[in-house]
Amino acid sequence: MCGIAGLVGLSPDDELLRRMAERMSHRGPDSQGIWSDKRAGLAFRRLAIIDLDHRSDQPLHLGPWHMVFNGEIYNYKELRKDLEETGHTFETEGDGEVLLHAWAEWEESALDRLNGMFAFAIWHEERGELVCGRDPFGEKPLFWSNGSAGLAFASEIRALLEARPDLTSPRAEAIGPFLGWNIMPPVDQTFFEGIHQLPAAHLLRFRDGRVAIEQYWRPRRVEVPPDFREAAAQLRDLLTDSIRLRLRSDVPVGSSLSGGLDSSAIVCLAATIAGDHQRHAFTARFRGFERDEWRYAEIVAAAAGVSEHHSVEPTAAELLDDLDAVVRSQEEPFGSASIYAQWRVMQAAQRAGVTVLLDGQGADELFGGYHGSNGWALRSQGLAGIGRGLRSAADRRAVMLALAAGRVPGVVARRYWRRHMSPYASASIGDAPTHLLRPAVPAEGFRSPMSEELLRQTFHTMLPGLLRYADRDSMAHSREVRLPFLDRRIAEYALSMPAGFLYRDGATKAILREALTGVAPTEVLARRDKVGYEPPQERWFAEPAFVSEISDVLLDPKARARGWYATGSVRADAEAGRWRDPNGIWRALNLELWLNAFQA
Fold first, then answer.
1. Confidence of residue 569 (pLDDT cuts 50, 70, 90)
2. How many CA atoms lie within 13 A of 228 on its CB side?
3. Contact 50, 95 (CB under 8 A)
4. Contact at 8 Å (CB) between 150 and 11?
């Protein structure tokens, strides 16, 4: 896990490249490297995970190819063997050199052979062409900007701003949707005007001053056994193999463990193959909070033979102390204080000396785990499924929402979103952002309402934000997060399943529960509540110190002058000592802190 950056255009400045690298020192505390010719420059910070020797430091070079790479190629051993059979020789034991040789041998078609998470940049000095790529799900970030001086790119916005300090202005059209409704910018944009993000599964080519972006992978339909139990057994095999690959490491590997189904699946399956890799697990707990998951996490840790189960107990006072650091590490606004729980888990892993953590993100999006997914599953089963849903008190509202999605007249939708707007957002932020809610999801062979909704959640609406938080929280403490559910094989398998395999007998993620029968504790498999790193933020924000902080920030003359906040509502709720919308007040506070941290 590392940080990469670079410049293509006018003769690169080595001192600027060094500054760009140094801005990402937390991403790679083990070494730094730069390289440049007359047209391109590359910068790199390394967190050593595989082949700890300095021979695997970057940038890496092979003839006219020059590369920086952030991430892990989990199947690098198999790829290396294939390349050696074609005549390639290697000087390191690392996965980065394998990626460079694979690109030199196969170029874009190498991407179909990779199992990994990555963001890379490869400069071909003879062609004068830069190619940047991002992994299939967007686990690793890559930001870029093109201007008269050429193209700049980086793993983090702070590094990019070293090259383009003129790009600190907020993107105006991103403010209203976030502040009012917690809607993030589209996946190719950021909160910064002029700074773009390369979407998941895309390549960027830069040559002769022109940028071209193309998608290199879309999920394809695969065969799924028609028998539910047979399909579940195949899923268990796929997930076990994905975990096996992601346990490859020359440094200690542990796990985040929330106590929910997804992280429990990873911990329990890893325990069957991981040896002493899984002796550490890290759980955030909140004593006295009704949604605390510590009890379930303890059950899982005991069942999986975890010998060192670390308890992390964040408090409101600690969040206040760390607030500026968390805002800066995220680089863009974020919608919930739950980020802090994950941030503290990564801090605990750093203190325990565990460099790599496995986690369960991606399962909710691929297997229909979110509230409301039952409606899409029943709608996908035709009139019979819709009828069953409408007759069920538990499913009726979700089915009606799934039926209404995309069909509600514009005026009705606008009224709905206006009613659900944060009370702390000024009416001046604009109309409800109905045009942002249902992006297109081109894929091969997926036509059911359920699969289309899961594609949206995976590539547009839900998972991209969660992956951003995981990357920034882990990298703030020089840790690496690996996500076994985000394997192309598992994604295509999950998206190809009948909707009845995902929602069955009143249970979401039914096939995953079946796959884990006999592996994970029954108490976890039987859970129907959905939590996920949820802190008691309503209670936290009502504490006097937090009320004072929010008031000081949002009622400051500079904040009031922006015209974005409903300062009357902020003042009234502060005086009452209770926030009508804890998520809404967090977004307002977080947005203003971000503006103060990053805007010139």
1. very high
2. 14
3. yes
4. no
Angle between helices 316-330 and 338-352 (to 10 degrees): 90
Q: Say how many residues make up the chain.
A: 600
Residue 437, token pair as written in the block: 């809610």
**Residue 238, token pair as written in the block:** 């796929």
Domains and their CATH numbers in the chain: 2-215 (3.60.20.10), 228-366+462-525 (3.40.50.620), 371-459 (no CATH), 537-598 (no CATH)
- Residue given tokens 């609406």 in the structure block: 461
- Whether 276 has a pLDDT exceeding 90, the answer reads no
Q: What burial class does residue 216 get, using C-beta atoms within 10 Å of its C-beta: 0-12 exposed, 13-18 middle, 19+ buried? A: middle
Taking the C-alpha atoms of residue 591 and residue 597, their distance in angstroms, rounded to an integer, is 10
Residue the block writes with tokens 């890559």:
142
Residue with the two structure tokens 């499913």: 395
Using alpha carbons only, give the angle 408, 410, 412 rounded to the nearest 5 degrees: 65
Answer yes or no: are the C-beta atoms of 21 and 34 closer than 8 Å.
yes
Supply the DSSP string of 355-369, one letter for each residue.
-EEE--TTHHHHHT-
194 — pLDDT class (breaks 50, 70, 90): very high
pLDDT at 410: 62
Residue 460 sits at the vertex; the CA angle it makes with 528 and 165, to the nearest 5 degrees, is 125
* Residue closest to 360 by CA, chosen among 490, 452, 500: 490
Q: Is 35 helix (H, G, I), strand (E, B) or coil?
A: strand
Query: How far are the Cα atoms of 18, 105, 234, 371, 514 from residue 153, in angstroms, in the given order?
Result: 14, 25, 40, 37, 44
Q: Is the peptide bond before 59 cis (omega within 30 degrees of 0)?
A: yes
- Gyration radius from the chain CA atoms: 24
Answer whether 424's CB lies under 8 Å from 569's CB. yes
504-510 long-range contacts, CB within 8 A, separation 24+: 504/228, 506/394, 508/367, 508/368, 508/369, 508/370, 508/373, 508/374, 509/261, 509/363, 509/364, 509/367, 509/368, 509/369
Average pLDDT over residues 396-416: 74
**E strand spans, 181-225:** 196-197, 202-207, 210-215
Phi-psi region of 533 (alpha: psi -120 to 50; beta: other; left: phi over 0): left
CA dihedral of residues 75, 77, 80, 81 (deg, nearest 10): -110
Neighbours of 129 (CB within 10 A): 15
DSSP symbol at 118: E
